[in-house]
TrEMBL record, chain A:
Keywords: FAD, Flavoprotein, Oxidoreductase. Belongs to the acyl-CoA dehydrogenase family. Residues 7-99 form the Acyl-CoA dehydrogenase/oxidase N-terminal domain. This is Acyl-CoA dehydrogenase family protein. Pfam families: Acyl-CoA_dh_1 (PF00441), Acyl-CoA_dh_N (PF02771). InterPro entries: AcylCo_DH-like_C, AcylCo_DH/oxidase_C, AcylCoA_DH/ox_N, AcylCoA_DH/ox_N_sf, AcylCoA_DH/oxidase_NM_dom_sf. Residues 183-319 form the Acyl-CoA dehydrogenase/oxidase C-terminal domain. It comes from the Bacteria. Its cofactor is FAD.
UniProtKB/TrEMBL annotation, chain B:
Residues 15-127 form the Acyl-CoA dehydrogenase/oxidase N-terminal domain. Its cofactor is FAD. It comes from the Bacteria. It comes from Prauserella halophila. InterPro entries: Acyl-CoA_Oxase/DH_mid-dom (IPR006091), Acyl-CoA_Oxase/DH_mid-dom_sf (IPR046373), AcylCo_DH-like_C (IPR036250), AcylCo_DH/oxidase_C (IPR009075), AcylCoA_DH/ox_N (IPR013786), AcylCoA_DH/ox_N_sf (IPR037069), AcylCoA_DH/oxidase_NM_dom_sf (IPR009100), Mycobact_Acyl-CoA_DH (IPR052161). Residues 132-228 form the Acyl-CoA oxidase/dehydrogenase middle domain. It holds the Pfam family Acyl-CoA_dh_M. Keywords: FAD, Flavoprotein, Oxidoreductase. This is Acyl-CoA dehydrogenase family protein. SUPFAM superfamilies: Acyl-CoA dehydrogenase C-terminal domain-like, Acyl-CoA dehydrogenase NM domain-like. Gene3D superfamilies: Acyl-CoA dehydrogenase/oxidase, N-terminal domain, Butyryl-CoA Dehydrogenase, subunit A, domain 2, Butyryl-CoA Dehydrogenase, subunit A, domain 3. Belongs to the acyl-CoA dehydrogenase family. Residues 240-381 form the Acyl-CoA dehydrogenase/oxidase C-terminal domain.
Amino acid sequence: MKFSFDEEQHQFASALDDLLSDADVPAVTRAWISGDRSPGLELWERLAELGVAGLTVPEAAGGSGAGPVDLAVAAESLGRHCVPGPWIESVAVVPALLAGTPYEELLGGIAKGTARVTLAAPPVTPYAVDAEAATHVVLARDDGLATATPGPGHGSLDPSRTLHPVTAAEQPSPLPEDALECALDQGALACAAALVGSGDRMLALTTAYAGQRHQFGRAIGEYQAVKHELADVKVGLDFARPLVLGAARELAAGSPTARRTVSAAKVTASTAAHRAARTALQVHGAIGYTREHDLSLWLLRSRALIGAWGTPAHHRGRVLDDLTRT
Amino acid sequence: MTPASAGVSGALEFTEQEQAFRAEARAWLAQHHPGRLPSMDTEEGARAHREWERTLANGRWSVVAWPAEFGGRDASLAEWVVFEEEYYRSGAPTRIAQNGISLLAPIVFAHGTPEQQQRILPAMAGGTEVWAQAWSEPEAGSDLAGIRSHAVRDDTRGGWVLNGQKIWSSRAPFADRGFGLFRTDPGAERHRGLTYFLFPLDASGITVRPIEQLDGNTGFAEIFVDDVFVPDSDVLGTVGDGWRVAMSTAGNERGLSLRAPGRFCAAAERLLDLWQERGAAAPHLRDRVADAWIGAEAYRYYTWGVVDRLQRGGDVGADGSVNKLFWSQLDVDLHETALDLLGPEAELCGRWTDDYLFSLGGPIYAGTNEIQRNIVAERLLGLPRGDNGRARR
């Protein structure tokens, strides 16, 4: 029996973590929030050089064709470092939609990092995120795929995200059967992995803070009320991670139960990240309730991702529908 | 519907040997298991469960992971989990031999003499000797190092004379023998000066007082120990080293062995059947039903992740506490959901009420969940120890 990452995936994860640890991503994200996207786009290029952008692009089209497990590895790392931009959309979702459509030639640019594609896919994803930082905006619906015109952006509760309503700019081209479902699955998987990464970082930040912050003459991490909350965060994340890996491997293997396992992973990762965020805020106290503190980046990102690419309610429904299908 | 524990799922790469092992276990269990038996914590049920242990042993399925010379199949860790999946999937009864197999046997393998191994293990595997644990005392629960029961050296007879009182001893009312810690060095405090003893429950000087549990059955008992002589051959490990010896079982109980994923996956499947029967009348319970099933699936993948890590030379250590926190909460939530689905009929005695009451013990035994959270916070997250978990004098 084998159920773990292989050596190459471990190396990929650590190369990615090294790059992002050195990149001062919180500063990149803060620039992104203030409207200066150039450090973020530069980071996008460097991630593309490492192969992140082309993970789900077939080799023939210029990607690595590495697939869902490597996608999960990358997404967890991008979530852990809170990388800004429409990378779930461009890396995980869009490539699965393009094969066999008039937009197929975009795949090469996506893999190279020169094309950044965002999309709306209503009803699950009604807005296109970060359209002004994208080179292309598309709309994916049951009746097909179309280039889209983004409307004015709405602010998100995560200030690093901007949400755009979109309208089709042309007659949609029909999508191959299952392409939309498959794209949504990859989006949900990447989102789940990013939530695990984000939760993991919030736990680390909070554990460190609880060890340093002293009140009543002792570190607040000595109090059981704090310890027990953090222990529960750890339990949630430790049980979400294998389910994300299981979902990725099932998708890669074309397992008939892959769809519901992806949904199970998204639900579990959302619950775990939510718990991590709530605990992180409570343990940090007032300083956690500021934008000054970097915790706010993960706190708000994770809340946005919980509802992205299928809400927990949507995915719970998918799990039960699949299990009770006759 | 595909059972959660169906096996090869695409994500787990089972070897051909593991798949053949699964098929063999599945076929044997389907043919031999007796279905649900009366509670093993009743006289009638205990007899029926012992009979089932003997049937398992005859098929060499009672202790698959043990060496063949003691009644096992030399099964790998992965094969053991496969067996557990198939066992619970088949609907076979709970195991009266469980405490002996998962708590005592690992210690006998690690610390027992060859004579002890020959005397204890085959009888345990064959279902002829059922063991009860005797850890807690009235003043030593979560704080197990507060043990007061003691043993005094008897050189003339070549052994020890035990005195004291044990409590919450699972299976004791219908078991044959007990195992537990006694203080052999009266001057030593806390974890020091303890020794691991084995003793017959029908010995002169032993009184077993069964205690009625929440479910009405006598699943555990109080054991009064008055001048009970135990020969040196029933000391497990070194005299005075009992704490270290015992802790290897505590880790085991909290870890993989006591709660294999098959049990929760099977319960989640039954919950789904109930949902299909009754869900239309209680649509507001949808999310909880989904979460119970998802929790069982998360537990299954988590377990295979641990197996993979152990196969590659890792260890469980304090992660056993993460595991225990998860399954014990999942078990309660799953059964609460079932009772809520049953509505006003939930209180009618049956499988769901039995299993619900059983689940309520999970957050308490094998180290309460509060103790487990301290372990996770201090040993895995590295938070400062503070003064919890230390004796106040």
